[in-house]
Amino acid sequence: MYEFTHHAATSVADAVGALGEGKFLAGGQTLLPTMKQRLAMPGHLVDLGKVAELRGVEEKGDVLVVKAMTRHVEVATSALVARAVPGLEKLAGMIGDPAVRNRGTIGGSIANNDPTADYPAACLALKATIVTNTRRISADDYFTGLFSTALEDGELITAVEFPKAKLHYAKFPNPASRYAMVGVAIVKGADGVRVAVTGSGGDGVFRWSEAEAKLKADFSAGALEGMKADAAGMMSDIHGSAEYRAHLVGVMARRALSES
Amino acid sequence: MTATGIGAPVRRKEDFRFVTGRGRYVDDINRPGQAYAFFVRSPHAHANIRGIDASAALAHPGVLSVLTGDDIAADKVGGLICGWAIFNKDGSPMRAGPHPALAQGKVRYVGDHVAVVIAETLAAARDGAEKVAVDYEVLPAAADIAAARKSGAPQIHEAAPNNAVFDWHLGDKAATDAAFARARHVTKLEIVNNRLAPNPMEPRAAVGEYDFGSDSFTLYTTSQNPHVARLVLSAFIGIAPEHKLRVVAPDVGGGFGSKIFIYAEETVCVWASRKVGRPVKWTCDRTEAFLCDAHGRDHVTHAELAIGDNNRIIGLRVHTDANLGAYLSTFASSVPTYLYAPLLSGQYDIPAIYAQVDAWYTNTAPVDAYRGAGRPEATFVVERLVEVAARELRMDPAEFRRANFVRTFPHQTPVIMAYDAGDYEASLKKAQEMHDVKGFGARKAASAAKGKLRGLGYSAYIEACGIAPSAAVGSLGAGVGLWESAEVRVNPIGTVEILTGSHSHGQGHETTFAQLVSDRLGIPIDNVSIVHGDTDKVQMGMGTYGSRSGAVGMSAIYKALDKIEAKAKKVAAHVLEASETDIEFKDGKFTVKGTDKAADFGTIALNAYIAHKFSGQELEPGLKESAFWDPTNFTFPAGVHICEVEFDPADGVVRIDRWTAVDDFGKVINPLIVEGQVHGGIAQGVGQALYEGAVYDEAGQLVTASYMDYCMPRADNLPSYNVGMTVTPCPSNPLGIKGCGEAGAIAAPPAVINAITDALGHENISMPATPEKVWRAAQGVVPRQAAE
Predict the structure, then answer these.
(1) What residues in A contact B776, CB-CB < 8 Å?
(2) Inter-chain contact A176–B707, Cβ cutoff 8 Å?
(3) d(Cα A101, Cα A116) in Å, to the nearest integer?
(4) What percent of chain A has pLDDT over 70?
């Protein structure tokens, strides 16, 4: 770790004002290990851990609001989440391990937009709205590639708003890291059927339109029988080739519907 | 059996301090004035060093010194050694290149030690290391055996043309070829034994300290064998003579072989401590551990089994290529040779065996002993061969094994080993019953009904441990003897300290060794403490590896206890005013035959020291004895493991549904600890079979340099094991014990792969059997009921 200065923010306004050339520190489950390995070297951290207005889960009309600093464990164990967006609590409970879930936050996860993280699939399938200190961004416009988002410099996520709907999610964990090697989120909501895939896309989370078309006609696992995603553009590494990942997208999509 | 004696499932005495964070590991040791070392490591697999410019690093605040290969050469510090001489088929010695602790003109793998920065703080040392400018001339790399042996391959060491370290063989080639010529059936297999990173929970660490007053060094290090470290650092590397070098290995958090070896880092820390006049501390980080801890396995083998009449095995022939990495680590050469080929007879009566082993340098981390060391590789060859042979012969794999078991002892194999005792049939029968092999067909049908494949695999392993008779290993090229020492110090009030050359880094010696003493002297286990891991306390020892601490280390204690008892009887004779020949000792009491006169152990101990009842001329005061035990043979633990797997051909994720292990470890001191060793060993073996693999890319970069990519087995990957035992006492040591530390890791991999291939109905799968490999192998395989 290199030397850095630390500011414990007390409010969103304070955090944004104190950022300068620094970085926001949410749960730190990616940033801190990266800093320890000297792969990231921010000179200044604005710690959001004590910003009360960024914490908590609430219902607002037909949306579920999960504030940015809400920890994965809080989502995983929230009765409100389980009632408003059933399946989202299960997804949160599959992230990392207990230590990660006790520290990691939804805002930190989607700000980082790791292509193998779980939350981006939920956001895209549910067509969530990413709320920042300056604007509202549709999930459709938010995820722009590997570790890349629509956030501007200095912009801070304050909450994620999920339309109420049932989330079907199945995850094939990378055997080593336990991140998603393939994670498929499926929602039949006001916006029709949306299928979002994380873990495998070379450009990060993406929608699987072929599956959406099939499911519009027949919202069941059977409708996806024999289907697999296009291997072109899939990630490929020692854990799984593009072809295997493309195959698993079909398997996980069917499991998402048959098991959740 | 007493509550704390031999055979009692005593909870580990050491665990309270470990699980409450009170262990004292090397990284917990901080010496006054301590500075910190950070190594500049090669980012290239193969490169010449044209120059090193340390000026910017030296100007960095807090940096005390930057030392390079030139400095260590100028101080005439020797290179690291390989302590086992192997000879080629033509009798010439193996071709070993130099192994400097800091690179001298050339680096040979990613992570190779280029320079060390010593600073006031670790952060300053790291900062300084980033400022050391190294001018590399990058050379082509050979990252695996295939690349290293190709004509025109990069030349890694001048001393080893074509990167060939040795071509060695064992067995009777003519007799074996003749057996194959008359065979009725020949089974052939191509086997890759995957490369593993050792991953002890505690990374390596070292603190070197030089005392100007006494002109002597102390090295605190994560070692499985501190005395061997001292011997090598003194006699070969030349840091200081033994009486000027103390080596301390305090609590050590796992080794699995990787902490046997004498590495560059501790050598540099102890040397540099005098150079900079400060204690020097180095603690390995996890990525450094992946890069630089000696890896294990990495064999490519062509294996053949010849079968004659009545399904009897008549010959076994293997050709193995072994990757030894960029340098020969401390015992690297022994692993694919004498720790491997002599085990190729397995549990079977095989009249002719021939093994050829070619060893290669590559631009990868050194490869050396890792839990099992050669024996897992041999067992994988044998147990895959017999399983496949049985399938080809359409025989039940258990019956094929039965038909070929060694049944009389002692049994001389054609490859050195003389098995002294065993009952392989007993383990197989018990394992089959415990596992409910009979119910497998029904379970397979139930899996098929869910669209899943199910398979059952056996592994009837044998291993040679309790290493080993010194003269025997010396004749095979070992540079050291493999005895063990013990000293028993009885204190005046009857408490006992055992000083042992064995080292505990997870094995539970503080408990098992104390059980032996408690049992023998009839004193409470809490009155016994075990002292180990410090060359200032224990005079000499050979350390812990090769499942030797029980069979060899405890035998030395046993011999010393014999002397204690004999001396104590002399004291008792004076105290009880009887003839020495009339003194009996049992359950902690000395009695006089035929009388009611008695004295307890503590009373006799006290009298040994106050010495009022005898004159110093007829009997020396005190009660302290020592012994060295040199074993008469290896010990031969053996057993049968049965693995049953289930998987969905849609994703290829193998789930181990049940595991039965029946092991014959001879006499067991503490069944709880032995069972724990079996559990841990199986976990590591399952890791090799399903999850682990150290992977280099073509340029020699380690792809699996963190837990993001190196897959360790975790609790949710493993079943609840059924563990059973059979007992044939080992005749080669006074306690009848064989050794259990490596058995699980040796037995497990073929059991897993035999189960997967049983489910698949074909043999095309390699380790680690990752989900993708299993998915590909399962294409077109239809779940169905068992053939029966």
Answers:
(1) 244
(2) yes
(3) 16
(4) 100
Which among A2, A175, A179 has the least Cβ separation from residue B770? A175
What is the distance, to the nearest Å, from the Cα of residue B166 to the centroid of all Cα atoms in its chain? 23
Token code pair at residue A75: 């989502």
Is B778 among the domain residues?
A: yes
pLDDT tens-digit series, residues A59-86: 999 999 999 999 999 999 999 999 999 9
Evaluate whether residue B214 is within a structural domain.
Answer: yes
Question: Are B134 and B151 members of one domain?
Answer: no
pLDDT for B497: 98
A15 CB-contact burial (10 Å; exposed 0-12 / middle 13-18 / buried 19+): buried
Classify residue B705: in a domain, yes or no.
Answer: yes
Q: Which domains does chain A have, with CATH numbers?
A: 1-50 (3.30.43.10), 167-259 (3.30.390.50)
- From B709, B677, B681, B714, select the one nearest B695 (Cα to Cα): B709
For residue B406, give its domain range. 141-195+295-412
- Say if CB B8 and CB B515 are below 8 A apart: yes
Weakly modelled stretches of chain B, pLDDT under 50? 788
β-partners of residue B179 are none
Residue of A nearest to B710 (CA): A176
Q: Are residues B392 and B244 in the same domain?
A: no
The CATH number that applies at residue B180 is 3.30.365.10
**How many of the other CB atoms lie within 10 Å of CB of B276?**
17
What is the 8-class DSSP label of residue B80?
P
Determine contact: A239 vs chain B, CB below 8 A. yes
- The whole-angstrom distance between A32's CA and the closest CA on chain B is 15
Residues 113-132, chain B, touching A (beta carbon < 8 A) = 123, 126-127
Closest partner CB to B691 (pick from A37, A175, A251): A175
d(CA B775, CA B788): 25
Interface test with B, best of A248, A258, A259 (most B CBs within 10 A): A248
- Backbone phi, then psi, for B448, in 5-degree steps? -60, -35
- pLDDT band at residue A260, thresholds of 50, 70 and 90? low
- Measured between CB atoms, does A235 come within 8 Å of chain B? no
The tens digit of pLDDT for each residue in A16-57 reads 999 999 999 999 999 999 999 999 999 999 999 999 999 999
Say if residue B581 is in the same domain as residue B648: no
Which residue, among A236, A238, A239, would best test binding to B if mutated, counting the most B CBs under 10 Å from its CB? A238
The domain boundary, picked from B629, B656, B674, lies at B629
Burial class (CB in 10 A: 0-12, 13-18, 19+), B93: exposed
Chain A residue with CA closest to B768: the answer is A239
Boundary (domain end) residue, out of B585, B608, B629? B629
Residues of chain A in contact with residue B695, where contact means CB-CB under 8 angstroms, are: 238
| CA-angle at B238, arms to B502 and B39, nearest 5° | 85
pLDDT at A136 > cutoff 50:
yes
Q: Kindly state whether residues B661 and B786 are assigned to the same domain.
A: yes
What average pLDDT does the structure give for chain A? 97
Q: Does B116 share its domain with B168?
A: no
Q: CA nearest B325: which of B263, B297, B367? A: B367
Q: What is the pLDDT of residue A1?
A: 83
Q: How many CB pairs under 8 A join A and B?
A: 44
Question: Residue B788: what pLDDT?
Answer: 43
* Inside any domain, residue B5: no
Residue A172 in contact with partner chain B when CB distance is under 8 A = yes
Q: What is the mean pLDDT of residues A192-208?
A: 97
Question: What is the count of structural domains for chain B?
Answer: 4
> What number of other Cβ atoms are within 10 A of residue A164's Cβ?
16
Identify which of A176, A241, A251 has the shortest CB distance to residue B710: A176
Whether residue B131 is found in the same domain as residue B145: no
Pairwise CA distance, residues B508 & B515, whole Å: 11
pLDDT at residue B2, as a whole number: 80
Q: How far is B126 from chain A (nearest CA, A)?
A: 9
